[in-house]
Design goal:
Layout lengths: L8 H16 L8 E6 L6 E6 L2 E3 L2 E5 L6 H9 L1 E6 L2 E9 L5 H20 L7 H7 L5 E6 L1
Antiparallel strand pairs: 1-2, 1-5, 3-4, 4-7, 5-6, 6-7
Helix pairs in contact: 3-4
């Protein structure tokens, strides 16, 4: 089952543009970067603010809203570019299997839970069983420099 939670009006028209604007200027909002990835159908480069997570020596991109367009595009292309101001980093992306996601999701929620907990459908306190249950609905990509 494909789950995608379309962002609301305020997120699409206010929140994301503000975060993206500051990030393009080089001012990261709690770790934000701009992900540029080629569209799987159009071939056009698409840009979206994301929060790369550093966890146990690796870096990850997590899709709190589920099967988002950026997650599907990243899966299809295998990589993209992370931007912060003028700094650009070409990345390769490998999808993480569901069985490896729970500790990554826990770390992500500990870092950005206030902003994303509702999209994951968990409360402030969540169990390992809840993380295992939601893992298949949220793509996670291990990223590295390409």
């Amino acid at each position: 089952m494909t789950v995608y939670q379309k962002p609301g009006f305020l997120t699409r028209r206010v929140g994301n543009p503000i975060i993206a604007g500051f990030t393009r200027l080089g001012l990261s909002m709690r770790g934000s970067h701009i992900l540029e990835v080629r569209g799987r159908s159009s071939g056009k480069v698409r840009a979206m603010p994301v929060n790369p997570l550093s966890f146990q020596g690796s870096r990850y991109l997590v899709a709190p809203r589920g099967e988002t367009h950026w997650a599907r595009n990243l899966r299809a292309s295998g990589g993209g570019v992370l931007r912060l101001g003028r700094k650009r980093e070409a990345i390769a992306a490998t999808e993480v299997p569901d069985t490896e996601k729970p500790p990554i999701l826990r770390a992500y929620l500990e870092r950005w839970g206030a902003e994303t907990r509702a999209a994951f459908g968990v409360g402030k306190q969540f169990s390992d069983a809840e993380l295992v249950a939601i893992a298949p609905r949220h793509p996670v990509f291990r990223i590295s420099k390409s």
